[in-house]
Specification:
single chain, 12 helices, 8 strands, alpha/beta, Rossmann fold
């Protein structure tokens, strides 16, 4: 087994970009094409990822497997790896609650792996100082992940303490950052309802220029990503409840993001469309 052999599940836009950084650092990165679409296959091929026949081949040829997938799929992905007795380091880098991170750690540990909890903050990594990967869990395993991405656009930060701390930090950040897009859209929808949207955008462009409310071009980027952000809100709701907080705000955000789910990967969605989706049916 190559000590720099990495498996990635599943290489969507974020997972592929993370994998590309590992390749750039000299790692051999493998992936599982089974069940993936043509766009994913083309992306993986262009990045130099090596395909393997099945999960057994991936688990048997890698010493680090990274899971980057929608939150709702994180447990099933971990279960499929654990079923093949993977004995390396398993990095769950998904937007899940600390409780779910621990559940996944217990699952893969029972299969023979060492679990590391990861939280990605920022866009798909392409250049330095834009994307951070926070890590928690066993020190040696965390260091192994840090070594894979040393010198790349993925800036790793090791947090002291057990699995769950990285996920908690990721969700605490996302609770503010992503819910702010819903608040901005709600403000725009309210202003539009009373015929003062243009005035609101002019006002916020002057006094809140670096926010989603102050920049309509930034606000509309939430539309194509809402299909992923909605489930993330459910993880935030679960984490909030476990911390003794009300989950209501996150649940409301999840419901509103769900109204935008039809705009998945639609880079042409407009502010008018997002506002219309927020109106009562």
């Amino acid at each position: 087994m190559d000590s720099r052999s990495v498996g990635v599940l599943n290489p969507g836009s974020m997972g592929a970009a993370v994998a590309a950084q590992a390749v750039a650092a000299g790692a051999t990165v493998r992936w599982l094409p089974e069940g993936r679409g043509s766009a994913t296959r083309q992306r993986a091929e262009s990045l130099g990822l090596e395909p393997v026949a099945d999960m057994a081949a991936l688990a048997g040829s890698c010493d680090l497997i990274i899971s980057v997938c929608p939150p709702a799929a994180a447990l099933e992905v971990a279960r499929s790896v654990a079923a093949h007795s993977f004995s390396g380091v398993y990095l769950d880098a998904n937007a899940i609650s600390p409780d779910h991170a621990q559940e996944i750690a217990d699952l893969v540990s029972a299969g023979g792996a060492t679990a590391v909890d990861g939280g990605i903050v920022g866009p798909p990594p392409q250049r330095a100082n834009t994307t951070r990967l926070y890590l928690s869990g066993p020190e040696a395993a965390v260091q192994q992940v840090c070594d894979v991405f040393a010198g790349t656009a993925v800036a790793t930060t090791a947090l002291s303490g057990p699995v769950g701390r990285a996920s908690a930090l990721k969700l605490a950040f996302a609770a503010y950052n992503k819910i702010s897009y819903i608040l901005a859209a709600q403000s725009c929808a309210l202003a539009e309802g009373y015929g003062v949207l243009d005035e609101l955008l002019e006002l916020t462009g002057e006094v809140l220029p670096d926010t989603a409310l102050g920049r309509a071009d930034r606000l509309v980027t939430a539309g194509p990503r809402a299909w992923r952000w909605g489930p993330e809100m459910l993880e935030i709701a679960q984490a909030s409840a476990s911390a003794g907080l009300s989950p209501d705000l996150a649940l409301a955000a999840a419901a509103l993001f769900d109204r935008w789910s039809a705009h998945k990967d639609d880079s042409g969605v407009t502010l008018d469309q997002l506002i219309a989706d927020l109106k009562n049916p």
